[in-house]
Every structure is written in C-alpha cells, then in structure tokens.
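Problem 3 from the worked examples.
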Amino acid sequence: VVSAWTTLAVPSLLSTKNSKQGFTTTTLTTSTTLPLSPTTLPTRTVLFSMMPTTNNHSNNNDKDDDIVIRLGLDENFDRWRFMQKLLDYEVDSSDVNEILTKVLDGYLKYPRPKFKSQDEDSMLTGSPPLTEQNRPILETLLGVANDNDNDDDDETNNNNNNNNNNLNVIQALTEPECSPGNVQVLQQLQQLLPDPQEEEDEHKGTWDTIMELHGRESTKVDETKQTPQWVATCLVARVLVYYDFLTLGIVNKPIDV
C-alpha cells in the first residue's frame, strides 16, 4: 500500500520494435510529468513507483526458501535494492533465474485475493489476471523447467536444480553479467508482459517502475543502445515487476488477506 503520493515523470510516447533476439523491445522517446494519486492512477498500474518502505510483505512459509534467506529478500526494500542491482548487472544470473522461476510458479499456483474496485461493481486483485493467454505460456515455461529434471546429461540444469520445489530454474539469463540466456525462453517471457496497445496503462506501469529503479536517464541511454544484455535483463526485470516480486516477493503458500 502506498503511504504517500509524489510526482513522477512517465513516458507519453513509446515505440515498439522487434529486436535481433526475436522479442519485442520498447524505446522511450518523450515524457510528461503526471501526479500520482488514487484518482489519476489507472486501475492496475503498479502502485510502487516510489522507494518502498521497509514493511515486510513477504508471503513465504515459516521455512523460507534458501534464496530468500541467502539474499535477504524478505522485505520490500531489499527486493527493491536487488532489482536495482539486476539492472546494473551486479547480481548472479543463476539467482535471477531461480527467483524468476519461483515468482512465476507462485503466481500460477496461488491466486491473488480480490478486492472491490473503486466503482464497487467489480472485483480486482491489483495483479495481472490469469487468462487463457498467459496460463499456457506459464505452464510451458515451468513445464520446461520441470522436464529439465529428467535430463541427466544436462549438467548445467542439474546444478541449478531447486530442491525445495523440484523445479529447475528457467534459463532466462546467463553469465557473464546477466547476458541473454535461452532465446525461446526470452520470447515466451515477452508474451507474459502487457500489450503496449491493448494494455497501455499496464505497459507504462512496468516502465514507470523500471525508471524509478534504474533512473530515467540511465534507462533512456540503455534503451537507445539496445545491447542484448540490457534487452534481456530489462525484460526479466519487467516480468518480475509485473508479477508482483516487489510487492509480494516469492509466494509459496496462499496469500493472507
């Protein structure tokens, strides 16, 4: 829950194009300044376009995941800091891949609680809806991860095995410094993001948060350069933002209301 409101510059014109890696990228071109308030924010715009508080909103079991303990991701501020490091390529790609897998796995397994909208006519979750479009993509991604457990010849996948959930991590990024991983995986992740035309508010919401994390000028510079490293890392970061990593962390049990 946002405890204060601020003014945030958001992109007013965004263009999309197909990158050499085979998935869509977005270039920021111009910007305007909009006040953030309960009445001006779109219904499902991400409500953490500011530095978060240190309140704990983790939804882990009493026995936390090893990666949550090891990286100290139990609180909002620490997850925010981890995302900043991700966009600066200062984290281990295997950690990012494991977090990505667990976030998507938790999203698929544990529905988000619903609340009445402002007009009182509909029920909303504040999270992306699980639809006929994104469910098969999620199942394919996580199914590929599960199938990797049976591949005894794949030493890399076996080394990345997540013993807690019997999931092999999705190979989105690799070393050195969070370079692009499996191209097919990256293409599937792109499909999990909101459509720039049909879901414009949600699309801009993910970019608002990326710019808050990475800085507006740094984001514009990296989007101009469009290096494969940036394209892949920013894609993964946006997926994590959109699927509630900053607000909920790694969800591995039903969410308490």
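Problem 4, a separate protein:
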Amino acid sequence: FICFALCVSMACQPKIGVVASDFSTVHRTIGTMFLLYHAYCTKYHFDEYGRIVGSYQLLWLCNISLFGSGIGMILDKPDVIACTVVAVSTGHYLWVFDTFYMFFSGGFLGNSLFGVADYTTVSGTITFNSVWVSSHHLWFIPFCIFYLRKKRRFLTVRDLHYSALYISIVAALTALIVPMECLEVDNPVRGKFCMYININMFRRWWGLEGLEFLHMFDRDDNNDMQGLVVYYLFVNFVHNYVLNGYWFLVLRWSISEGLANVNKKKNEEEGV
C-alpha cells in the first residue's frame, strides 16, 4: 500500500530540469495514501451497507476531509489541510481518547468512554476491515500536523472560521440528501434490515451522551422545519466554535511548538 503510493507520488514529480522541494515526494506520498485509503473505505461501505446506504456513509465529514486532504497534499495546498484538520479535530481527538480507554479497560465492544469510537461492523462484530476503515481517526491528524510543520504553516483564526463554514455546508447538504426514514441495509452477514443513520449528526447529537443539554434540540423530537433550523444552528455553533475552538488552540500550539523546536535546533546547529 505504502510502496504503491510512493511510486505514484514519484510519477507525479516535476520533469527533469524543474526544481522541486525535498518535501514534495513525501507530501505527495501521504496524499496518495489518503486517496487509496479512501477508495478502500468506499468499497468497504458498499459491501457492508449496500450501495444506497454505503453512498450516504461517504458523506461523513471525516471521509470528505480525508479525500480533500489527499488532493490538498498532492497539489501542495496547506490551506486545505489546515481547514480540514480543524474541522475534524473534536471527533478525532475524542475517538483517540475512547480508543485508549477501550484498550486499557480490556474491551472494544460497547465500552466507549465518550460514545464516539466504534470499531464494530453492522453485525456487531470486530474484524480487520472494520478496524482498518476506522483507523484514520487515529492517524489523520498526526499526518496533517507533520505536513503543516514541514510547510511552516501556522494555524490562524481564519482557519477556524473556514472550517466552521466548511462543516456548515457539509451538514446542510447531509440534511438535504439523507432521509430521516429508516433505510434498508443489505449486509452479507445479517441480510436485509432497516436502519436509522445519523450521518454528521443530522438527526441527533452524536457522542458525549452524558451531557443532556446537547440533546435538547435533537430532530428525533423536533422533526419539522423550525426544529431543523434550531437544531442546525445549535449544533453548528457548539461543535464548530465551542468544541472545535478548544481543539483549534491545541492544534495551533502543537504546530507552533514543533516549529519552535525545529528553529531552535537549526539555530544551535548554525551556532546562533
């Protein structure tokens, strides 16, 4: 997988005589890995849920961000990476904490701390594929931080606003595209059955179940136009600015601290 990505990235290198940065092969390789992994996840979703519900699964913010970041790294667009990494920060960091909790408490089935991480299949089992297609929640942010550090790209408040706009657009499209009704899933193990899906929290808050106030505008109880508007505004404000605002500060510190250490080491080597 990694070798194939490296070969593709090297094939995308500039022609002889064109100067390229030393980092170009690395970020093209990471971007290609992102796209290949996204293609693998797409096939998994189609196999696991069927073509219709599997297509809806691709609307998850993390899946769109994975694809967009892959393109962004191949084209060397750090602004795209900055926007997407801030956008998924809350979900991914909570997923990491959930995973550590599951690991040290000795169980990955129904043993989530924040109710975010889930490695099970539709049939309720854990397989290599179900773990692999969820693993990007663990390594996506570290790869993005690595890229932004190498590009010496600091996060700014503008990135927080752009990520909020990006999330709001994805959330609106999800609410318009995905039906509220129970959808038929065609699973190779369980067969055909009806399932309610909650892509991008378009019907109710996802995770942090202990905080009851997060559920006071859930569309399960307010499924009309007024309820949709109120819920949409509430969820996007709390998620995009309150929760992501905190993790934005964490990300900005992580990138800035890394760049500061790099500069310090460089100055020491130069004897400054």
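Solution to problem 4. The first strand starts at residue 183 and ends at 187. The first helix runs from residue 2 to 11.
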